[in-house]
Amino acid sequence: MKFFRSDSVPVSSEHHRYTLRGILKGQHGAVACIAAHPLGTFVASGGEAGTKIWHLPTEKMIPGPTGASDRGTTTAMVWLTRPDDEEEGLAYGTEHGFLCIWKRKKDGEEASQRDMNYDIAIDETHQFTEIYCDRLASGESATEVSAMAYDVNSGQLAIVHRAEAVHQFLIDVGMIPRVIKSVTIVKHWPQAVAFGQVGVHGPELWSFGREDGVMRVSTKSKQNVHE
């Protein structure tokens, strides 16, 4: 995976606005999603081989706490940060409907033996541990997580499935998701999700249909449809 930086010197990009900064190695197979940390310290990618994280200043891959196993291909991901403290993590969804959260270790937390034996020297505070993983739905409804969104101000996480499902969580101080609502919208197959303007009932949740182009706007108390 290649990444670029903005530069006034025309070197490699088609419009001469960016230069190649480095190549990140470690993700095998197709890449289904990428998420960059808001501060530019980390970048994560997801695909058939699961979820991978790199520390950008050193261009080193960080050992992840788990592989893909039976959760399937990683299909969507988003960074979780807070404006008032240093707690941060990565949430990702998979093709089999799993939601998993990796939390970055803080100063003083011990690294696992697996991490200490890793062949790349990584600062312990750059390592992650899995604190949550659960299947959001089962049976026929346990379909691929198609998109995720996070609102840093409210600490809310939104997740949509390809099978008419929309989930909204509050990420607590321990980075554990607490359900705000989980609904099935008949004949609505969401492809993307985002948080909109904030009202008296909190931030609006926008879900965009894959087949019909319909955007559904919902809050805690109501739901509207926009063609």
UniProtKB/TrEMBL annotation:
InterPro entries assigned: WD40/YVTN_repeat-like_dom_sf, WD40_repeat_dom_sf
Q: Which Gene3D superfamilies match?
A: YVTN repeat-like/Quinoprotein amine dehydrogenase
- Spell out the SUPFAM superfamilies in the cross-references: WD40 repeat-like (SSF50978)
Its recorded name reads Uncharacterized protein
Upper lineage ranks?
Eukaryota, Fungi, Dikarya, Basidiomycota, Agaricomycotina
